[in-house]
């Protein structure tokens, strides 16, 4: 259940960010979720490698839920960093619609 909530909230944040900067909304919502799950996957692999190399604890002692909770912050951090990078990149080249109209000389005379 936690996974579905995270998919919804992560996707919604990227959807509204893409909508604000007039980009493809669904593509960026899906990409945000992919970044989240991809980083969970790779951090899980790295965690397993480190546990085997340094002989910390046997992987058999952990349940799937425990491993999922261990790698959860890495996924959230990666999704947040991707969000910040997109927002910073898009805000540099973004011109709001009102400023765009003013730049081409169209004036609304109501």
Name the structural class.
mainly alpha
Please give the share of residues in helix: over 70%
Note the main sheet: none
Spans of at least 5 consecutive residues with low confidence: none
Q: Oligomeric form of this entry?
A: single chain
Total of DSSP H or I helical runs spanning 4+ residues: 4
Strand content: under 5%
The overall pLDDT average reads: 85
Spatial separation of the terminal alpha carbons: 52 Å
Q: Supply the number of structural domains.
A: 1
Walk me through what this model shows:
Helix content is 78%, strand content 0%. It is mainly α. It has one domain. Helix 1 (2-20) crosses helix 2 and helix 2 (25-53) packs across helix 3. The protein is elongated.
Strands, helices and their partners?
Blueprint: H1 2-20, H2 25-53, H3 64-93, H4 97-104
Helix pairs in contact: 1-2, 2-3
Please tag this protein with its features.
110 residues, mainly alpha, 4 helices, 78% helix
Compact summary:
The protein is mostly helical. The chain is built from four helices and no strands.
């Amino acid at each position: 259940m936690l996974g579905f909530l995270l998919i919804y909230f992560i996707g919604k944040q990227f959807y509204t960010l893409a909508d604000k900067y007039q980009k493809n909304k669904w593509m960026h919502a899906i990409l945000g979720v992919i970044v989240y799950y991809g980083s969970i996957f790779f951090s899980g692999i790295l965690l397993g490698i480190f546990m085997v190399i340094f002989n910390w604890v046997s992987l058999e002692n952990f349940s799937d839920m425990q491993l999922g909770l261990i790698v959860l912050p890495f996924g959230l951090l990666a999704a947040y960093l991707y969000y910040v990078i997109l927002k910073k990149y898009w805000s540099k080249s973004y011109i709001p619609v009102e400023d765009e109209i003013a730049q081409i000389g169209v004036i609304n005379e109501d």
